Structure formats: structure tokens, C-alpha cells
Amino acid sequence: MPENEETPEVVEEPQEPGAALEAEQKPADPWADPDAARKEIEKLRREAAKYRTKAGELEPLARKAQELEDAQKSEAQRLSEQLTAAQDRVKAVQQRAVRSEVKALASAEFADPEDAHAFLALDSYVAEDGDVDTDAIQRDLKDLLERKPHLARLADHSPRTPRSDRTQGSSGNGNRTPNDPAELFAAFMKQGSTRGR
Q1: Three-state SS for 174?
Q2: At residue 37, does pLDDT exceed 80?
């Protein structure tokens, strides 16, 4: 060999000490040997049968737990719906109470007390404890009358009634129809005889 040529050196990779032990401890492939494979299959079958039996025993318990969970959910939903309905009823009663209070307070100064609650935000008069704030209603009614004086009651406190007009209707122009049936029939016959000519 010439001196210039280098000989390839075979470098062995350093092995970890645990890798050598694992290689020695690994059992041979159980599927390579038919007897070992049969034993492994039997072992796996026994384990599978044991787990199937255990799953069969636990299945009714799992179903029962699911039923209880569903019952609790539906109970919670039912209670939630009842709570919402009760809150809606309380709000409706509060609104009715506020409307009544507004109407009662407006009856002294408004021509039509029904008009008062149409211009006010009724939700704002219910306090945190559910009571009606009559002082705030009185302030807002006074402010409303200042802004819209046409809603106020007349000074003489008399109701607004229309005046009668005698020129309206058949009695105002002299063309009165007779009330006597004989006169009605005669007028009818008179009209018929003039048409025939």
C-alpha cells in the first residue's frame, strides 16, 4: 500500500450502557414461536374477557349516572324557567303599580291622566327594593306639564264638552221628516205619483 493512501478507519459508535442491557433483556419475538404465540393469545383473551365482564357490570351504573345527570339538568332548567317567569310577573306587577301611581298623581293636574304615563319612562321609578318612587314621579309630572302645557287640566276644572249646533241635522234646516206612519206613507205615495208622469 502506498503511504499516501489512507485506510478507512472503522469508528465504532459509542453505545450507551443502558442500550446494551435493553438488547440483552428483550425477549425474543413471541409470534415467531407458535407455542409462545398461542400462550400470548390465550393470555390476551383472558384479559379481554375480564374487561368485557367488568364493562358489563359498569354499564348499568354508567346509564344510571347519565340519567341522574340528565334529571339534574332538566330540574335546573325547570327551576331556571320558573325563576324567569317569576321575575317577569314581578316586573309586570311593578309596572302596573307605577302606572297606577302615575295616573293617581296626574289626575289632579292633567286633563287626561292616561296621557301622563305615555310620556314617562316607567322603569325608572322602581327602586332597588321594589318600591315606587313617588317623589321622582311628582317631579317628572311637573316637568312634563312645563314642557307640554296642553296636557294640563283647564283652570275651571270643567270637562271639555262640545257645544251643540242647531244647524246640524235635519231639524236645523226645516226639512223635518214626519214621525207618523200615515204621513210617511202619504209622502211616499206622493213621490211615486210625481215620478210616473
Answers
A1: coil
A2: no
Check residue 1 and give its pLDDT: 47
Amino acid 124 reads: S
State the Cα–Cα distance between residues 49 and 46, nearest whole angstrom: 5
The C-alpha cell that represents 131 in the structure block: 318600591
Q: pTM of the entire structure? A: 0.41
> SS3 for 53?
helix
Note the maximum CA span of the chain: 161
Neighbours of 97 (CB within 10 A): 16
- Site of grid cell 296636557: 151
Identify the H or E element spanning 43.
helix 34-106
Task: Phi first, then psi: give them for residue 109, nearest 5 degrees.
Answer: -120, -15
Nearest C-alpha neighbor of 102 from the set 144, 134, 143? 134
